[in-house]
Structure formats: C-alpha cells, structure tokens
C-alpha cells in the first residue's frame, strides 16, 4: 500500500531512514512479522471494522494548505461591531508568533508535573493576577472554557455555597449576555435548579422577585451596553443572604469600579479581548474570581505559590483535591481541560501593555463609543443609555433592519436587537473612519473631526484603586524584553518540542505545523460567532466536512463540534441520553436516573453524570482489568428500570481491548439503558473499530488528543459529541441571540457553549489531520500507536510489571507500569520515578491514573524508534537505581530518586551532602551529555502551598520577608 507522503512525517517509525527496519525491529521484539498480524492479535475480531473508512484519500501538505486557503476564501471578514462578549483585538505580533504560534507553548501538557512546567505556571499565575486585580477579588482561577460556561459554573458554585435552602432561586438579570442565559438555563434545568431570568434594572430591583433568592447574576456593562451602579442591587441581594456574581468585561474594569469593591462574591467573564482573536467563537479563556472563603469551591484549575526542596519559590496547581480526578461526582465541576494557552496569551497582553497601556486602550475604546453616541444624537437618533463603556444602543423605530443592512453595505456588522433597536460595540481596532461609516449607515451625518472630550462613564463609578502593580506588568515593555521574557519562561518547560510526553489517556502526538498555520489566517481568526452565516461559508463547509468525517470514523449518525472540551462533550452526551429517556418515559413512571460507571473511569465521567442529575453507581473491575460482567449483571438487576446509561471507555483506561465490550453493551441495552462510550482512547480505534457500531449510543471525542489539536499547556480542546440516529434530535442547540443568526441546528436541547460551534477557530487542525492522512494513513497511525505501546511494554516488562494485558499478552495503545511492588519492597514511589525522569530529560507518564501507584505510558504513533529506546533506556536505568535501594546501597530517602529532580544550582553547590555523586544525579546516562535539560526547581512541596494559599503574583516584599 502506498501511503500519502504526510503519513511518513506523522508516524515516527515510518519516518526514520530505514523505516521498514524500524517497524520490523519493533515487530520482531513482539515476535510478529507485520502490523496486520499485530492488529489481528491485539484487537478482538468481534469489534473489527471489515472495510476501509469512507474518507477522501490523503493529500499532500501543499494540497491541504491550498484547499484550506480556498475554504478560508469562502469566509468574508467584516468589521465586527456586534459585541456581546466578543470583540476584535490586536494580538501583539510578538505574542502571536512567540506564544500562540510557538510549539514551546502550544505543545506543552497540563502542568501536573510542576517542576518542568514553571514557565507556563508563572504565565498562568500572571493571568490569575490580572483577573484578580481587575475584578477586585482575591482568588482567580487559571481559566474556564468560555464566558457562558463560566456563568453556569458560577451559578452552580453559588448554589453549592449556600447550604440548605433547597428551593432557593438563582436570579439572572435579563441584561446578561443572551448566550450566557441560554447555557445557564440548560445547566440549571438539567439539575432541576430553580432559575429565574428577570429584569432587575427596573423599579424595585431584586425586590420584584419573590421567594428565597440564593444567588444573583448581573452583567457589567449590561448586554445592552448600559453601565449601571450595581451596588444597590448587590445590597438587596446581601439583605436576602444571596450571593452575587458579576459577569464583567475585563477591559472596562480598567476604568470602572470592580465587582469586588462593589460587594460581589464572584466575577466571571471572558479574557478574549486581551489579544485573543475572535476565532468565530473560540477558543477563548473564560475567567472566574471569588472572594476569600470561596476558593475551595472554585471550578477548574488554580495555580498557587509554594516552595521547592531547597526553599526556592515554585509554582504548582493548588487545591487539586477539589478536582474531578479526585472527588469524582462530588467534584466542584467536571472541567478538566480548560483554556491555558489562551489565558497565557491574555496574560501576556497585560504584561505587554501594562496597567497604563490597558487603561489607554480602554479610554480610546470608550472615546470612540462616545463619538458614535454624539454623532447619533447630533443626527437625531435616540441613544438609549446615557452611561455606557463601549457599546451604544440606539432606538430606531422600525428601522433596525435597514440600518443593519446599510452597515453591512459598508463592510460593518452591527447587532440588530429587535425591529426598533440597534447596538454597536467599539473596540481596540475601531477608528474614527469606522465611526463615520457607522453614522452614515444610520443616516446620521458625519462624525465630529475632533476626539470627544466628554465621558459617558458616571463619575461615581470611576475606578480609583490601582491594579497590576507587580513588577512583571512593568518590566517587559520593549519588544526585546518581551521576547526574552517569553523565551525565558518557555525554556523552563518540557514540551513536545523537546521530548516525547508519554501520557496515558492524553495522546500527546504530533501537532503538525501545516495543521497549525491556518488558525492565524485572518479569514478564520477575525470572524464574530454571530456574524451572518453567509459570511462564514468557509467555516460552514469546514465544519460540515469535519463533522461528517468524524461520524464516519466513529460509526455514529451525527456529530456536533460545539462542546469545547471532553468534559463538555460528556455533559452534552449525557444530556442527550436524559432527554431521550424523558421523552420515552410514561407519565408517573420512575425516572431513569442512574449512571453506571466502571471503577477505572476518568473522573470527568462521574462529575459529568452528576451535572445532569444522574446518580453514579460504580461497576467493579475484574482481575484482568475488564468490566466485571457478574457485577454489571448484579447492578442491572438491582437498579433495572432506573438505569439511564453506562459510561465506558474503550479501549478501557487499563490499556486493553476488552473482548466483552459487545456483551456489556447488550446487557445494558436489554435493561433499557443507553451506552456512552468515552472516546478519549479513540487513538486505538480509528480505522479498526467504531464505537457506534459495536454498541455505543453516544460518544465524545477529544480532538486535542486523537486529532492533533495541541494541549496548549492545559487547553484549548474540542470535545465533539457523536450520537446514534435516535439521539440526533437531542444534540446541543444554538446559543446565539434568538432568531438573528440562528444556525440550522434542528434541536431544542440546551447549548453547552457560548458559541454555536464552540472553539471553531481550531477546527482546521483536525480537518487538516484527517485530510492529510486519509483512511489508510489514519488506520496505519492507529496500528503504529498499538505497535509503539507494545514495543515499550515488551522492552520494559522484565523491569516493571505490566499491570494489564489483553489477548495474546498484548496491550492496546497504552500500558500501565505497576510500581506498587517496588514501592512495597523499597519505599521508592511512582512519584519518585516520575520526578527522576525529569533528570533524564523526560516528561513523566500519567501518574496514579487509573490505578494509584502506577505509571501509564502512551507513546503514540508519532515517536520514532530512537526516542522510544531513549525512554526505555531511561526507565531501565531508573529501575537499576531502585535496585540500588533494594540492595541497600542507599535508602529510598537518600537515593537520587527521592532527591529528584536536580537543578543546575543544586548540582554545582559548594556543599554536596548526598550519598550519590553529582554525576549520578545530573548525568545518569552518557547520552545526556548532549542537550541536557535542567529543571528550574527541585521537588515542590504541594501541601505547604495549599496550607498558605497564594494564587496571584505576591508583592515582592513577601519573598523578602520569608513569608513564602
Ligand atoms: C482526557 C479525558 C477526558 C476529559 O477530557 P477533557 O477534554 O480534559 O475535558 C475524559 N475521559 C478520558 C478517558 C480522558 O482521557
């Protein structure tokens, strides 16, 4: 078979000179003579797909780029003044090229291994500082998925934080963003949480709402552009013991009193306009900040400050115990992958501009809006709100459509709110010439030649407090300094551009440059999610083709790319199951409200089930790692008609192709339940088997795993939901303002993201991957992923027990190394091995998931034989060091394993007190002489950081005083 040329770039074992020899070496180690033989031995015949995927043949990189240019050419970029939470912005070129387009940043993994992630952790801490300072609240998280989901998370947080008062209502002000209201409604409805949307800006404010109010959500400025004094409403809420969330525009907070100072308990929003392109809706970083006392209930990740073994300041993820991977269905949220890369871009925008620069941008944006309002009034148009920041709402009885059309003729998109109202949002890129064109569209004559001197911000609401006083927001103003800061940070980190990252379940494969490039093209980057659909014809084609291809790959009837992470795909899929059961349940019958989840499942599964109001019942694991069929039968017998679904992962997170998966599916179907197949491990299935064919009713995929979207240091992601025919009516609905730009989505189910196509701006990556590989290339990639995993497993089997194997003693695309027997014998832990790998220049495999005390290795097809051997050699050398402990050469505590990782400073210190030599610590293998990576900090004390929680850039004095 001749494979498309890109396949030999993507699959490591096919890429090396003497490629066939590399593959043959690996196969020979397994005693096999062909990839087909391997696949036949490893993958159960009962699930094998008996045909080639019906996808276009693989194309060259040049052809794919040319086609993407053609698709981009079908989009029309207009001056986007629709606003509603999405604003054009200037991504400083130094940030675009050296963060957004830099593999050192975008190929990094989530910073769970903190010692090799100090650069991105510092950048995320800067993000938290920006959010915390601007909102006036002390603790901010390291990003959420978008503004609409952040509002939904805040509502659930408020509901959890107010104990008792089960019937308490959350009130959402009607001037919140329409997409936030739509997403929040869905989330509340799924849990049966009372939620009321009310106009709180009218007479009486919150007093107009009856009943027990536990939480209030306000928008600042309002979706209509109005700037209001929220203090009276917040006081009314406090008087009723309700918590208050303000969804606030970050740029406006450089000029206006922040929510924290007005008494709000939470602030949420989007950091998009801090240098992140519109991207037709995403990816963008959502943010959340809370007052003290609520930090332990925060959804998502939180970066904190701690110290390393030598007492140096070091960053790591704080309060991990709140997260879904620990707390499962009791977690504070199901969010796992968030928007790290975009949060980093936003933080760097603040570093680049500093507080003064941000204020200037905000003043300029405001001044354009004032010029527009002045021009409208001068032309006899009524401006509805006297106080506004960037958005002007005009009352134009009966003329809205005509004005929107006139603006469109001038190349400008504005928002027609209803027949009588039009609103126009100004931004960083708005020029006086744009304002003149908008005024023309209103038939309101010409703008004044001079910049307005007045302000439409009420004096009483002007911000007086300082922000971004930390040196980092002042030290990097020249481009030289900025460039070096970015380089210094990324140099601290180990990303895929330096080493394989063999993370089980996370599939850290090649993110090819050809796949990445189009996301910076203006024709993809600069389109508003609510732009008229005909302007996004390229996106419509791209998304339609991608959804079709993913449906073919998975064997389902339809796919929606709206969910912007795997967790959101899970939520959307479970929501579909729930709606399906609801429609089929006889009135009066007990609801199907139980979700069966195997013990080995990813924590997001249980957390997502909880979010749709399902009760989690755990199904046991059999000795071979498969689902225990007897236990499944028992649980089905016990819960019978209450069973809504089972959530299985295939191949299971134990790294084996269970040959009983069809039985599992039939048993659940026979009991009337639906089968949710978590598609995170699709890298072991593409081209070989289809979840939709072997029994799944619904799956989510992780395009940031199997389909090459980079992890970005913890996001972005795309988690499409794929469903069988009977669930198609329940795919996520349209969040855009009603009736204006509605997509032709046939469904009424709740949207799960603020934009119709979620993180549309990165869908070129999976599209390009599939187009480059073609059906044969994709299948070859899957087989090669199984080959690399089995090669590593076979070479390591004599040194570390492989916990689970399937048919023929083979694993799937990943394998679990069991460290527990060694820990019992020597005291050396899996964590010690993970940290010691850093001294060998590697990112550790997945630690402690799905089995505590183990390491899960997933090499992926992208790694070549040399890199696989380098990893195996490091693991074998580490095994020898463990043996030294067993043999009594030194104790575990005195071993280089426990001392790891070793910084350059610790190795050259005048005083050396370790039992092992400096050479053994720093250069344990001769091969490390070339291009050694030195971790910037030693092992970090996580518990200490959690006790003294510091989650924003500490004032410099704190270091000097030794408080940290
Ligand atoms: C990664 C993963 C998820 C969650 O996906 P996110 O995109 O991080 O939300 C769910 N299940 C499994 C098995 C995973 O590996």
UniProtKB/TrEMBL annotation:
Record PTM N6-(pyridoxal phosphate)lysine, positions in chain: 705
Enzyme nomenclature, EC number: 1.4.4.2
Chain ranges of the Glycine dehydrogenase C-terminal domain: 781-902
Cofactor: pyridoxal 5'-phosphate
InterPro entries, per the entry: GcvP, GDC-P_C, GDC-P_N, GDC_P, PyrdxlP-dep_Trfase, PyrdxlP-dep_Trfase_major, PyrdxlP-dep_Trfase_small
Keywords per UniProt: Oxidoreductase, Pyridoxal phosphate
Gene Ontology MF terms in the entry: glycine binding; glycine dehydrogenase (decarboxylating) activity; pyridoxal phosphate binding
GO biological process annotation, one example: glycine decarboxylation via glycine cleavage system
Domain Glycine cleavage system P-protein N-terminal: 20-442, 456-733
Class of this enzyme: oxidoreductase
Catalytic function, reaction form: N(6)-[(R)-lipoyl]-L-lysyl-[glycine-cleavage complex H protein] + glycine + H(+) = N(6)-[(R)-S(8)-aminomethyldihydrolipoyl]-L-lysyl-[glycine-cleavage complex H protein] + CO2
One term under GO cellular component: cytosol
Organism superkingdom: Bacteria
UniProt function note: The glycine cleavage system catalyzes the degradation of glycine. The P protein binds the alpha-amino group of glycine through its pyridoxal phosphate cofactor; CO(2) is released and the remaining methylamine moiety is then transferred to the lipoamide cofactor of the H protein.
Record's subunit section: The glycine cleavage system is composed of four proteins: P, T, L and H.
Family designation: Belongs to the GcvP family.
Protein name (Swiss-Prot/TrEMBL): Glycine dehydrogenase (decarboxylating)
Organism of this sequence: Flavimobilis marinus
Encoding gene (name): gcvP
